[in-house]
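worker-03 picked up job from queue 'complexes'. Input manifest follows; three sequence lines, order preserved.
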Amino acid sequence: MLRHIVKAQQFDKPWIEGFFGQVREMEDVAASGGSDALRRRIMATLFYQPSTRTRLSFEAAMCRLGGTVISTENAKEFSSAAKGESLEDTIRVVAGYADVIVLRHYELGSSERAAALDAAPIINAGDGPGQHPTQALLDLYTIEREIGRLEGLKVAMVGDLKYGRTVRSLAYLLAKFAGTKLFFVAPPICQIGEDIKAHLAEKDVPFAETGSLEDVLGEADVIYQTRIQKEAFSVEDLHGTDERSFQAFIITPELVSKMRQEAVIMHPLPRVKEISTAVDVDRRAAYFRQAKNGLYVRMALLMRILGQEKAS
Amino acid sequence: MLRHIVKAQQFDKPWIEGFFGQVREMEDVAASGGSDALRRRIMATLFYQPSTRTRLSFEAAMCRLGGTVISTENAKEFSSAAKGESLEDTIRVVAGYADVIVLRHYELGSSERAAALDAAPIINAGDGPGQHPTQALLDLYTIEREIGRLEGLKVAMVGDLKYGRTVRSLAYLLAKFAGTKLFFVAPPICQIGEDIKAHLAEKDVPFAETGSLEDVLGEADVIYQTRIQKEAFSVEDLHGTDERSFQAFIITPELVSKMRQEAVIMHPLPRVKEISTAVDVDRRAAYFRQAKNGLYVRMALLMRILGQEKAS
Amino acid sequence: MLRHIVKAQQFDKPWIEGFFGQVREMEDVAASGGSDALRRRIMATLFYQPSTRTRLSFEAAMCRLGGTVISTENAKEFSSAAKGESLEDTIRVVAGYADVIVLRHYELGSSERAAALDAAPIINAGDGPGQHPTQALLDLYTIEREIGRLEGLKVAMVGDLKYGRTVRSLAYLLAKFAGTKLFFVAPPICQIGEDIKAHLAEKDVPFAETGSLEDVLGEADVIYQTRIQKEAFSVEDLHGTDERSFQAFIITPELVSKMRQEAVIMHPLPRVKEISTAVDVDRRAAYFRQAKNGLYVRMALLMRILGQEKAS
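worker-03 finished. Artifact:
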């Protein structure tokens, strides 16, 4: 039985494979209108930063399974400057009200601290620059669901690889599967960190870095696009990096025409300009299906954590 | 089957008459403690502007029918300046979580754009200066419920007729019914727009404009009062318009004594000073019953949209 | 049948004793996973000030009993400067949507005004500097639950006794029980008000004031600690009151070692520094159990107000 979900690294390959079978069942449960498996269970969403997309996805997952939700996007108010309550105290109090706590917090390691109390099951819904493990699981699930396998995949990660936590977690998970090859496609100032490269080298996972999206289009099974948050970079970093150098990373219908027919384009959303909306109608555009998979993955996680094996 | 609710003009007279029968049933359903007709259905309230009254009314409607709600009053955060997600993308994502989306947005036409995607049923809960069709339906339902008919009615609309979207929609709906006569009672700077007058002329609906509430009190079946939002007018517009000229439009017990016994006073609320609280005890004061009718109208709309004919 | 919960003084000793039996039953209901006793009932939480802890506690209580919740932490928006709706109008509207209204408002007497309308049952969840009766009930319940009786108790109240509304209400309730003795432990600028002392004198309840926590540790059955909100005091009040004089009121393991074995430490939370976290592991630290009792007390109150005698 699963107790806490804190980081992507806590899941090994056998667990992931078994879990994805349960996620697939959740697709059927949702399609047939939901279940009462989690009736009378209470999930608290405790968000110290608003993240409406993530919060609504968790809440919909709980509702689809017949559970109920208590919710705050103002969790900071618990520990406002004037009051100064510790995260630990807040978790202990909310654990008295709810059967599971979904925590979003701006501090690295906050979910590990909350889980260490073991007052209630904790699901990390993002801890600042740290982890967002349910996003990593839904990304991996989407790849399997779209491509049909998790072994022998060529995955190109594009955009902000330096600060984007989703690509870092996904690279880590993909390294567990045989035959993975990774392409890191980014301007030099956004390239993937040395720690990830060292991890891949240790696991004998081949990878390549490139500044050209066109180089990998014909080969990749998955193009995982992300948003480059220019505001994350210093003026010095950006010196000499003109707008054109970012525009080369925008996915357009012209670039999509060079992709393999069975390949897919993913994106953690929100998307701004880095994928042209003209691409949306292409069946290789998987990003909205990916968002919906978040619902199924979170349903399955809630089932596991609340000790339900079967939805019916 | 109803798919989207975007504007008051989409409903014709036969539809309205059939629908109001279902609204009446919802009164019985609510009085008997609710129904499970929408069990396991999820409604998302996606509010880019807070409107607590409207939001709670929709949420209560869904709860009374056994459904569940996921909710945000921070929908702007989805598309914050830094992130810049389009409304279309947000709707596509939320459509993956919910069976129906109630949308409140500050931009004219936003609900039509959302409905055009057809990703999920959309209910327009106000699109800036545009439409608020569920308010228009509850206003019309209240008139029928209070007076007992929709034909041959004399309705006086009072206050801010220039910017008030509720009176504009209601005028449009009333024009569908035989024998309607409308009085527009307002200071010159707040009078009804030429477009509405042209529409009424085309439909052969008699109407009169006046600056005197007393002129119409003895004749009207319905006094529909609205709040004059002085901040909506420019200083030049207000030039020469003294406080007294607004005070003449306040409904007091003295004015109510000149109304017909079977007439009613309506108001979309919130009410500030434009109806004296001393009027509340008069049985002709229908505005709180009108607010409650919003619950029944929204219950019936949710039933229609989610394909349920019978509540039990 | 209970209609409104406005102030701690409305409950007499026989009512409290009967009620606490029902609270005890709610512990069993919650432990067995909840009940459907309040199925289809709607509770509105109408918070003009955010108080996430109190709100989530009420919402969890309603959910545990199978009811549903509509909620706002933005109730001020109902009556924003521009709109100016009265509390009375807001209550009348929300009473049309919900079966019970939990009201938190910044104005003294707001709950009494709302209850006077009798449009829906009102539960006061804090009215500014006034009352917070459900907190007072959960405090008293915790004492009975922890110590095993409500008569013959020696209770030390520590910290901000001048502005802390919880200690004032609790003192009032304890005065109803035979053999109560109260210690008021605070720096001179935070001592208990003359009105409470006059009330205790009238009821022949012995009490003592002291500036030394150590004086009472060996005798008290209950140490009720509160947070001293230094910002509540003027600079003149604080003149001559150095940091050390506040530190003497911090409960440390060393001080706890001087307490009676059967005694307990309570705190309304949030706790900042006034109880050392090293005390948390001591079984006499009852404050997190106290917070959880808030759930049971609110469940029992909702059962009473909504006319349910039995949870199963």
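worker-03 released lock.
Residues 133-290 of chain A form a domain with the Rossmann fold fold (CATH 3.40.50.1370).
Chain A touches chain B at residues 33-34, 50-53, 55-57, 59-60, 63-64, 66, 68-69, 73, 227, 229, 231, 269-272, 277, 288, 291-292, 294-295 (CB under 8 Å).
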